[in-house]
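Q: Got a minute? One more chain.
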Amino acid sequence: MTTGGITGLVLTLAVLLVVIAGIQPLARRLGVASNVLLAAVGVAIGALAAFLLFTSFTDVFNEAARAVVYLRIESQTVITIFLPLLLFQTALTIDVRRLVEDIAPILLLAVVAVVLTTASIGLGLSAVFGVPILGCLLLGAIVATTDPAAVVAIFRDIGAPGRLTRLVEGESILNDATAIALFTVLMGALVTARATGIEEPNADMAWQALSDLGIGLIGGALFGALTGRLVVMLLPLLDDIKPAEATLTVAAAYIIFVTGEYGIGVSGVVAAVVAGLVVSAQGRAHISPENWRHLLAVWDQIAFWAGSMIFVLAALVVPRLMADVDLYDVLTILALALFALIGRAITLWLLLPVLSMLKLSTRVTHRYRAVILWGGLRGALTLVLALGVVEAPGLSDGLKRFVAVTATGYVLFTLFVNGTTLRPLISWLGLDRLSPVGEVLRRQVLALSLTDVRGAVEEAGRRYDVSPSVVREIAQSYARRADQVTSDTDVEAEIADRERLGVGLVALAVRERGLILDLHDRRTLSTATVDRLLRLTEALLEGGRNEGRLGYMRVVRTALDFERGFRFAYWLHRRLRMDRPLARRLANRFEMLLAFRLAIQELRPYVDERIRPMLGRRIAELIADMLDGRARQVAGALDAMRLQYPDYAEALERRFLARMAERHELARYDTLAQEGLLDAELYDDLYRGVTRAQSRRDDLPRLDLGLDTDELMRRLPLFADLGDEVRARVRQLLRPVFVLPRTVIFRQGDKGDGVYFISSGAVEVRIEDRRIRLGRGDFFGEMALLDNRPRSAEIAALGYCQLLFLDADDFRRLMRRDPDLLETFESIARARAAQNRSAAT
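A: Always. Here it is, folded:
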């Protein structure tokens, strides 16, 4: 490309960006979606350029008009440049955990509905207009992908329900992948059919197409999950440098898409989407909240540029594609619209209720379904795929024209018919209004806020010596509004206790998540702990939202259980004698319990200051009682660990307070710099000093399990009188064992495999309905070895225990060598047997 060509291209793109910027406020003033206006402006520019180029009225604008009319947009180039960015950004900003709630209906709309719509269009158009079935199916795949941007913008403008927005966004992010994969398969089948002279698809072609589609989708999902996890692992290595984190994710979107699509032969679209979802779900715990907000802001800007530019560029070629439209084409476009609606309607009204019947999804109302049906707008991606058909060398000119004209006409139909009537439809269905509960809460929040504003106005008037009459005038206007709202609102009378409690628990969980993120922002928690705490707070939120108190308390009861990863680390310790994974898990648990305690302490005033005024005294007291129960549960678990590892508990608390102090120190320097009391050089020097101290405390202190055999032996009176030679021999036979609370060490009837000595902690002996407690210095398990019979009792740990284990064979050899030890064990065994017999009688 010449220098003049590059200059012209850059200037054209810059002008288009100016147009895109100007359209945004205009769309807001006109009350239409910006994509609808972008399409209209793009088509208008294209039409105007064609008029200026071919008119005899003037030749002044010929060069500029020629650049637009003969603008060459290669579909593959556009897809490779813009699509990875749009897909990754949509996946990155979506709430993955809320998406999972509705994953069944979303997959139905994104996969099954795409296939049904493709089939409905293909079979319908082929039967009515006599076009070859493969060409009609290809057209169906092209128009099956939906563009959520305009629809979601309308939803947000009018306050549509959050679930409706989530369903549309979730459908769109996944149906792009299905439609593009289906398009690729059908394009290949069409080229093959034309090359081999096959007019209609056969069973072999259908099976190969389905096989390629499945491999592409599943392989793309696996590749995206692995690469997304890799991105998450790389983010903490960038030292909290915001530009570096944003750059990594942008590069990752392209690398994942290109490698998947052109390197390993899977769906790059699916890979980019899944990778974005993985980063969205896990990335928040691996970078600071401030950096996460910056990352999302960067991606929002990138997606705005990419989405708007691809829309305008695609719209510019619409006049060229639609230049020779006739009545037959119009009838084809209308028929396509009808068959597309039929395909989606089958999914929404016949298949979606089946998910509810099978309890795979909560019910989607008829009003939601109507909006989803009518809100299936098509956009730039459909136009780009249609251009791909026009560029394909192995297809007939007639098929190219059929696909290009029909697909382009259908995009315009959905934008200018569906897009302009969707807002009135939502209003007519009443989906832009709050629920009765939401309306009452709105009035209550408004009343409380207006009262606070009135107080703030009066305080500002006193502080800035404003005329009392002016202060009184403004304050009284807020007081009248607050009185009017308050007189119409009685929360306790208008909303049932159960509904108010659900609202309160959701608010509590949201606040708790904010507190955890605040601790993360202070860098007081490790990444693994932040990740687990965020998952637990999300579970609390969903439990409170879906099942109220029962759901919330179910999560509370299981929150302190040892998760699968912890159990696996414990298994490694017991079976393979690998202690480091267990020590790391215990350290994370210690940190998690400390964070829970801090969060619960902060939540108590939140209940009094926010929930009580908003939801009433009774609900506040119920929530306070639930918090007290959680506090006792956490305190018990924390005390058990603190008792076992007091030095480590002190190290964690020291680390936490040091982080708090560093945070306050940095905030103080920020304030002084903003006030002009610190110049840039001095501020940077002070800042570096604090961050160097932070880096020295970044890693979580290492927890020593305390399983040194010599130290554990010294705690046991049984071995105190042994000679040095015997002690050394016994030491070689003993193996340290760490036991978790409530762990059953062995059960009644088990084969005796050895003897256990308690160096710290306590266990419970369970014989039928009797309970006997053994503590430090005691041992158990010897009776089965001395009597050569199965275990006579069940033994469970009451807390964290440090034990020494002596294998059965080693025990017997030791007893043969040391008769005094044997006599000690036998006397204790006889006493226990006598105790058991007397208790039984």
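A: The beta strands are 734-739, 744-746, 754-760, 763-767, 770-774, 779-780, 794-797, 801-807.
Q: Perfect, thanks.
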